[in-house]
Design a protein that fits this description.
heterodimer, A: 407 residues, Cytochrome-c3 Hydrogenase, chain B, 16 helices, B: 160 residues, two-stranded parallel sheet, 7 strands, 27% strand
Chain lengths: 407, 160
């Protein structure tokens, strides 16, 4: 029988992918020979909306770019605005900002560990890590009032102080989390199911990681020694000591080790912050109108480098806000990682970059002016539309269906 | 001793006449340069190959009134960022792709095509990003004259 290629659409709505994105995978048997990634399903016009709102309103809007690294985006934005306005944030404000940033990294990496476990059919790991993640979620709720959208940042500092009573609670939670993470480090390095399932999967060589522009833990697991916290220090990172965790496994297994290593570093950082928390005010007053100017802000989010560019024009509204979320850099590497690999590796390889498509697409309320669609569609009409849509994409099941009908 | 940022600034100004007084060091690790569009390929090549700006962080597109602006945010391993800005006329916003240097520029360049109406020459084939397949042609949402209700009005006119 001659070899034939099949193109299978995975997504935009698919049980193996938790966010809308579309992968058209070309297969030869079980092997992936080509892939086309289509993003944009989560595009909400946030950059445009920022231009129509004031700087202070934008802090809250930008925090909602993502539900996991919300603090990453708001910090990255306020840093740029503070630079343009020439505001010097008080040290205590910077330390509290960094504290929330590291707690966010802990909850994000624990979340990832659970998702990774789930994608390889190891749901016990998912249950364990997500149970433990509640410890850090409760702590974030205690310190900020919220589990995900903390609302801690404001232009010129932070909005809530840390009280003396909260310090022992932070330390106790970190102790619990550290003990649990040590257990996960043991699981990751000794449990054969994990080692065998993740080793050699989603391989990205050191050269390719650099050339293709991977960021964050994805790059660091290919021995790319880059971390904005150390290379381009912001907030309180310049005054704190920590290691940048790298690994040379170049695969999903390496990415797991990097994230577990980063969890341990995060606990170290949190203890340092709490021990050296400076006194004084937590914020300076920011002007309503920001002077004309521009700034580029970088931030090491849990998933990699987050970049915001802000241009002000002297009014209370920004001229332009540009957001580059880490997943936009990493998702372009996925097709390379999966080339000549098996289809069964697809969910875990995609999950291993810890993708966040709402971040990536952030940036319009979409209304079609081509033909206003009726509110409800009949089932046959919906089916016909989907067949037609895929046909336009070059995917046709007619022949295949006929073969089945004959049988 | 001169700082690393000032050394880069001087090197750029000496090497390229078009950059005289156009390079400024805004703060530690932040350099901004305004490059004429014709000289951009040469300056970009020099920055990447000779000055070791080996990371492309992002590409920002801007609506500057009569012109469209584009900023390439390049970075060195040590954290220094060079922001190379250029402007092209709105009626002919054509630039060459930089995907040969940085394959990841693919998504960044498609974004400025969709949202601002840039024309990027030499971009490999691929699906659009980030707007929908049925997005009306000639509508560029990040241009200043574009308002979201433009689409609503068209819809209302059709339904009337």
């Amino acid at each position: 029988m001659p070899e034939r290629n099949f193109t299978i659409p995975i997504g935009p709505q698919h049980p193996a992918l938790k966010e809308p994105e579309s992968f058209n995978v070309t297969l030869q048997g079980e092997k992936i020979v080509g892939m086309n990634v289509r993003l944009g399903y989560n595009h909400r016009g946030i950059e445009k909306a920022c231009e129509e709102r004031t700087f202070v309103q934008d802090v809250y809007l930008i925090e909602r770019v993502c539900g996991i690294c919300s603090h990453s985006h708001s910090t990255c934005f306020v840093q740029a605005v503070e630079e343009i306005a020439g505001l010097e944030v008080p040290k205590r404000g910077l330390y509290i900002r960094t504290l929330v940033a590291e707690l966010e990294r802990v909850h994000s990496h624990l979340l990832w560990l659970g998702v990774a476990g789930h994608e390889i059919g190891f749901d016990t790991l998912l249950m364990y890590t997500w149970r433990d993640r509640e410890v850090v979620m409760d702590l974030l709720a205690l310190l900020t009032g919220n589990r995900v959208h903390y609302g801690m940042n404001t232009i010129g500092g932070v909005r809530r102080d840390i009280t003396a009573e909260q310090i022992p609670q932070i330390l106790a939670a970190v102790d619990t989390l550290e003990e649990r993470t040590k257990y996960y480090a043991q699981v990751a390095t000794q449990e054969m199911t994990i080692i065998k399932r993740l080793s050699g999967v989603g391989v990205l060589s050191h050269e390719d990681a650099k050339h293709l522009g991977a960021v964050g833990p994805t790059a660091r697991a290919s021995a790319v020694d880059r971390d904005v916290r150390r290379d381009d220090p912001y907030a309180a990172y310049g005054a704190l000591s920590f290691n940048v965790v790298t690994d040379n496994h170049n695969d999903v297994y390496g990415r797991t080790l990097v994230r577990v290593g980063e969890l341990m570093e995060a606990y170290k950082l949190i203890r340092q912050i709490v021990a050296n928390l400076p006194g004084g005010p937590i914020a300076v007053k920011a002007p309503r109108k920001i002077p004309a100017g521009e700034a580029l802000s970088r931030y090491e989010a849990p998933r990699g480098e987050d970049i915001h560019y802000v241009r002000a024009n002297g009014t209370d509204k920004p001229e332009r806000v540009k957001i580059r979320a880490p997943t936009l850099a990493n998702v372009q590497v996925v097709a390379h990682m999966l080339k000549d690999r098996y289809l069964a590796d697809l969910p875990i390889v995609i999950a291993a970059i810890d993708p966040c498509f709402s971040c990536t697409d952030r940036a319009i309320r979409v209304r079609s002016d081509v033909d206003a669609m009726p509110e409800t569609m009949s089932w046959p009409a919906l089916r016909a539309q989907s067949i037609d849509w895929y046909r336009q994409q070059g995917i046709d099941f007619t022949q295949l269906n006929r073969t089945f009908m004959k049988k | 001793m001169l700082s690393k940022e000032t050394t880069i600034q001087q090197e750029l100004c000496e090497r390229f006449d078009c950059l005289k007084d156009k390079v400024k060091v805004q703060r530690v690790r932040r350099i901004f340069a305004q490059v004429p569009a014709v000289d951009l390929p040469e300056v970009f090549d020099y920055a990447v190959k000779k000055l070791n700006f080996c990371i492309l962080g992002a590409i920002t597109g801007l609506d500057e009134g009569p012109t469209l602006g584009l900023i390439y945010h390049l970075a060195q391993e040590n954290g220094i960022v060079l922001n190379l800005a250029t402007s092209v006329p709105k009626d002919k916003p054509v630039l060459r792709t930089v995907t040969s240097y940085f394959p990841a520029a693919n998504a960044y360049e498609r974004e400025v095509i969709d949202l601002l109406g840039f024309q990027i020459e030499g971009l490999p084939q691929g699906s659009r990003y980030p707007l929908t397949d049925d997005w009306p042609a000639g509508q560029y949402p990040l241009r200043k004259d574009w308002k979201a209700d433009i689409l609503d009005q068209k819809e209302a006119a059709k339904n009337a």
